[in-house]
Amino acid sequence: MGCAAGTLAIPLAKRVKKIFAMDISGTMLNLLQERCSKLNINNILTIQGAWEDDWDALGVGEHDVVIASRSLITENFESALAKLNKAARKRVYVTTIVGDGPHDRHIYRALGRELNPGPDYIYLCNLLYRMGIRANVNFITHEEQNSYESPEDAFAILSSKIEVITTEEADTLRSFLKNHLVCHEERWMMSYPRKICWAILWWDKEET
């Protein structure tokens, strides 16, 4: 669920009989289908759908393993988790944020904004427990230091990502980047590295 252009579906296709790839974006599904065509992959079936949709009406059905990696974006987490659980015969995997997740608190603080990344893995663990599901938990931690072609490229990407909408915020972001961007091997990156942590929750159906 939330397959995008096939970040997981493409590599997994070589190891399984069939993949059912679902996403809310028709554009992402078209990109996935184009990639499948170029790579001669014919065991990925796509369907356009959202967390809020009726999955029975969409024909989602049941599958051995169900995955939602960094895609659990909804106002009704309990309903979304219940849909994942119902669709799985054997196991469910959910990857979600820990703390700030991929968001850079330094930039939000510079803009005078409050960072609210939403519920993290602890909320989901407690919600699953209330649903009678005792999920296993593991973590993926990596140091992230994004690089950009130029300071202008960094501004364009970050202002779009965090939705800078006022001239004052744009000026503040430019000033922040001027103070924190450094050039290394013809690429520009922040002067500070950030450790990003993701939680992997999984459970087996026979244990729920």
Residue share in β-strands: 25-35%
Q: How many helices?
A: 8
What are the low-pLDDT stretches, counting only 5+ consecutive residues below 50?
Answer: none
Radius of gyration: 20 Å
Q: How much helical structure, as a percent, in the residues? A: 25-40%
Strand order of the largest sheet: 3-4-9-5
What characterizes the major β-sheet? 4 strands, mixed
Question: How do the helices and strands follow one another from N- to C-terminus?
Answer: HEHEHEHEHHEEHHEEE
Which structural class should the secondary elements be placed in?
alpha/beta
Number of strands: 9
Instruction: State the end-to-end distance.
Output: 21 Å
Overall, the morphology is globular
Fold and architecture overview:
This protein has 208 residues and is of the alpha/beta class. 36% of the residues lie in helices and 27% in strands. It contains eight helices and nine strands. It has helices spanning 9-13, 26-39, 55-58, 77-87, 105-110, 121-130, 151-161, 167-180; strands spanning 19-23, 44-48, 63-69, 88-97, 136-144, 147-148, 181-184, 187-190, 194-204. It has a four-stranded mixed sheet with strand order 3-4-9-5. The chain has a three-stranded antiparallel sheet with strand order 6-8-7. The radius of gyration is 20 Å and the shape is globular. The model has no long low-confidence stretch (mean pLDDT 94).
